[in-house]
Design brief:
It is a single-pass membrane protein. 42% of the residues lie in helices and 11% in strands. With 713 residues, the chain is an alpha/beta fold. The strands form five sheets. It has a six-stranded mixed sheet with strand order 9-11-12-13-10-14, with helices on both faces. A five-stranded mixed sheet has the order 4-7-6-5-8, sandwiched between helices. The structure holds adenosine-5'-triphosphate and zinc ion.
Length: 713
């Protein structure tokens, strides 16, 4: 894949300016610059006003690789996670604020700089941490048998759970008619909070929203992914020991139809065929056609794979058997295989029907490729599954749908003809899809007239159906908390920010000194961002702590950039400079001896980007246009990159040198900007100290009357 940005795409946001002039590593100044600032200002405004001009024109150009960094804060790339965690992802299906790594000292004034990226894979054996779980995380934990009991609030809109390991968390519950069934099937103890009438729920929701509690999970989630003791992947940990697990659920009638799945038109079209097989098998067998046995639904978590599978069963009017593959895998060898046998025995007796296996990668990984113990069990389980599928005669009427977001790790035996030989991709929805999903999830909610789904959809690139559902629910809760009768666009806007960056810790006590440090640090990021010719406009700068971050600078990448997932070399170089801007500002203002650990994450992000550029994107002359780093993800998607190196020591030296050069260059660019615009840095930091938040427009206006110089390189 070409890693360069489609020029159409990249030039859109800033107008038709083309920056292809040969590198001039110095600052220049001309009237052109003020024009560019004006354009950036306009871009900023249009982002803030949610209207993305020319979008339609470009929409068709690219999409799919959909990336979700909506806004992004301070710095950039997520930590590598234990690259060998055998069992990847049920990533949290939200756009996450991503802390990088705990800095050496937790007293670091900036704590964590955040990147808001798409969900990233995380070892599925773990539970989300933190005191508030997303509904989808909760469901997946329930299905894995990790939730012991739940206590609903009186009106059922929230619950508190106790996990098998004793952890407690709260969950906001959307209107899900299946929830009780799912809980019951999975042996979860259910109760309803009583007594504290009225007040109780309010206090409960208040807790959820209380800045210090909520969303800590977002951050710890990622800490967890950074290695830790790295348990045995999807295998049940010791916690599961002795716990009785449900094997599968059987739903005679799902009651879900394709109409309940908004967007996903292509997937529905492809699955319509499966519905038809189930309804009229004879039509096909009469012609000698082999009815497919298995179909793989591939896509990121929360995109509605389970919903689609249920809809297929609903449309065909057949029973729906479901299980999460991770449930098959037990500590005891042979248990998984026997569960598979049970499941299919039952299914065959009820044919025609749908068997849905969620997270098939938990058992379906390439055999012999796992680590540590437990392989036997997994292999036996997958062998049993293959045997079952091979055993179906052509028209047994059992069609197996399986979901995964890691088709790449699946054992090729699973994908052979006669098994999961069909794949249906369920992608993150595009704008139009998001509008439809928002409509579905605002049914039954009182919305103010000012709510415009189109605008919300534009502000939520990369959001999945589950994310949008969560957004609408959070907005509803905010509205209730504000004693409103209707959900207005403000609640949605605030809910969006909370989801992306975590709630603001408005009442956190921050010393004047720390405030000043953070203000300069963030101003540094913003300043470099604004002065880089090809970079996203600054949307907002804040020094109100959020989550573990001392402050945040939000950038607003254009929808096209987000949806195309393509980044030009200069964009990445600029991004590194922007990430370094925080430290550079500290250095310039407080002196080299007084810089803090607050930038450690920025550095990690920067080195990761640089390494990717050299190892994977072919951006290094010395390494050339090859990918040498082993399999790796897109750092902006929050994906992990393999730490496994398949190159020699000599090559490693070259890589290191190239990485260093890229970083050094970014650093000196940032430094040059900072020193030439120290006046604006002061102004912005001052403004931040006074107001705590400065929006993009106000920030850009500092340039218009000032004498800003655009850095051209
Ligand atoms: N296209 C959609 N239309 C309407 N609702 C959706 C859509 N996609 C997701 N949702 C909502 O998000 C919830 C979670 O989706 P679902 O569990 O089907 O996702 P998934 O892809 O199976 O995720 P996972 O891989 O985590 O199991 C659904 O219950 C549904 O309410
Ligand atoms: Zn920073």
């Amino acid at each position: 894949m070409s890693a360069t940005t489609n020029p159409l795409l990249s030039s859109h946001f800033y107008g038709d300016r083309v920056l292809l002039s040969p590198p001039t590593p110095k600052t220049t100044k001309s009237s052109l610059h003020s024009q560019i600032f004006r354009r950036k200002l306009r871009a900023t405004r249009s982002v803030l006003n949610n209207d993305v001009p020319n979008f339609e024109r470009l929409k068709s150009a690219q999409s799919k690789a959909s990336l979700a960094a909506l806004l992004f804060a301070s710095s950039i790339v997520p930590q590598a996670q234990a690259a060998d965690a055998p069992n990847l992802p049920t990533p949290p299906p939200v756009i996450q604020a991503q802390p990088t790594k705990p800095s050496p000292s937790d007293s670091s004034p900036f704590a964590q700089n955040l990147l808001l990226t798409a969900p990233k894979p995380s070892a599925s054996s773990d539970l989300p941490e933190g005191s508030q779980w997303r509904y989808s995380e909760f469901l997946s934990a329930v299905k894995k048998g990790k939730v012991e009991r739940v206590r609903f609030s009186k009106d059922g809109s929230a619950l508190q759970l106790t996990a098998v390991d004793g952890r407690r968390a709260s969950v906001i519950v959307p209107n899900d008619p299946d929830l009780i069934d799912i809980l019951a099937m999975n042996g979860v103890d259910i109760s309803v909070s009583e007594g504290d009438s009225g007040n109780g729920l309010f206090a409960f929701i208040g807790n959820l929203l209380f800045p210090f509690l909520a969303f800590a999970g977002l951050f710890f989630l990622f800490r967890r992914a950074q290695g830790g003791p790295g348990g045995p992947g999807g295998l049940g940990g010791p916690m599961d020991f002795g716990r009785s697990k449900s094997k599968f659920q059987e739903v005679p009638e799902t009651g879900v139809s394709f109409a309940d799945v908004a967007g996903a038109d292509q997937a529905k079209l492809e699955l319509q065929e499966v519905v038809d097989f189930l309804k009229n098998p004879d039509k096909y067998t009469a012609l000698g056609a082999k009815i497919p046995k298995g179909c793989l639904l591939v896509g990121p978590p929360g995109t509605g794979k389970t919903l689609l599978a249920r809809a297929v069963a609903g449309e065909a009017g057949v029973p729906f058997f479901s299980c999460a593959a991770s449930e098959f895998v037990e500590l005891f060898v042979g248990v998984g295989a026997s569960r598979v046998r049970d499941l299919f025995e039952k299914a065959k007796s009820k044919a025609p029907c749908i068997v849905f296996i969620d997270e098939i990668d938990a058992v379906g990984r390439q055999r012999g490729a796992g680590l540590g113990g437990g392989n036997d069990e997994r292999e036996q389980t997958i062998n049993q599954l293959l045997t079952e599928m091979d055993g179906f005669s052509g028209n047994s009427g059992v069609i197996v749908l399986a979901a995964t977001n890691r088709p790449d790790v699946l054992d090729s035996a699973l994908l052979r003809p006669g098994r999961f030989d069909r794949q249906v991709t369920v992608d993150r929805p595009d704008v139009a899809g998001r509008v439809k999903i928002l409509q579905v999830h605002s049914r039954g909610k009182a919305l103010a007239k000012d709510v415009d789904f189109e605008k919300i959809a534009r502000r939520t690139p990369g959001f999945t159906g589950a994310d949008l559902q969560n957004l609408m629910n959070e907005a509803a809760i905010l509205a209730a908390r504000r004693d409103l009768k209707e959900i207005s666009k403000d609640e949605i806007s605030d809910a969006l920010e909370r989801i992306i960056a975590g709630p603001e810790k408005k009442n956190a006590v921050v010393s004047e000194e720390k405030k000043k440090l953070v203000a300069y640090h963030e101003a540094g990021h913003a300043l470099v961002g604004a002065l880089m010719p090809e970079y996203d406009p600054v949307a907002k700068i804040s020094i109100i702590p959020r989550g573990q971050a001392g402050g945040l600078t939000f950038f607003a990448p254009s929808e096209e950039r987000l949806e195309s997932g393509l980044y030009s070399r200069s964009y990445l170089e600029n991004q590194m400079a922007v990430a370094l801007g925080g430290r550079v500002a500290e250095e310039v203002i407080f002196g080299t001896e007084n810089v803090t650990t607050g930038a450690s994450n920025d550095f990690m992000q920067v080195s990761r980007v640089a390494r990717q550029m050299v190892e994977r994107f072919g951006f290094s002359k010395k390494i050339g246009q090859v990918a040498i780093g082993g399999p790796g993800g897109n750092p902006f998607l929050g994906q992990q990159m393999s730490t496994q190196k398949d190159y020699s020591m000599a090559t490693a030296d070259v890589v290191d040198a190239e990485v260093r050069e890229l970083v050094d260059r970014a650093y000196s660019r940032a430094k040059q900007i900072m020193t030439t615009h120290v006046d604006i840095l002061h102004k912005l930091a001052q403004l931040l100290i006074e107001k705590e938040t400065v929006d993009g427009e106000e920030f850009m206006s500092l340039f218009i009357d000032g004498k800003a110089e655009l850095y051209v390189s």
